Amino acid sequence: MQRTNFGEMACSIARALDVIGEPWSPLILRDVWVGFSRFEQIQADLGISRKVLTERLNHLVDHGVLDRKAYDQRPRYEYVLTEKGVELIDLLMVMKGWGDKWCAGEAGPPVLYRHHACGEITDVDLRCAQCGQPMHANDIEVLPGPGAAVRVSGQ
After folding, report:
1. Is the pTM of this model over 0.70?
2. Which of 29, 55, 114, 149 is the 20 to 30 Å CA partner of 120?
3. Rounded-to-integer distance, Cα 124 and Cα 136, Å
């Protein structure tokens, strides 16, 4: 079955999904972020097949989200987040907050975040980049941007 090419859509959400929309990709990024940088470490943590992990790592490297660094003569590689990858972690932090609220159950969140700047345990909070006020789905109006696809009314 041919997969839809989300990267061709005039939608930034679809284009992001083209990079990380497969379920293993965010978990691989999370693992690299918390310090699992080698193939064997990621595979052991996730219980993912070697074939799928290889495909996902290659995809993330090809899209500039991870870099592959040789650490052995064989060669063997470790994976590090690029600047693009670090910015994706912000998205995953927001997803974690949603998961904590709606999916964590009675046990509570499996991980906590301590903010380096203040030392406090905290959560990510979406705020407007212009005024600093909280910003959520009901607080905004969606407008066409310069890269919007041309749409004909009624079609």
Report:
1. yes
2. 29
3. 13
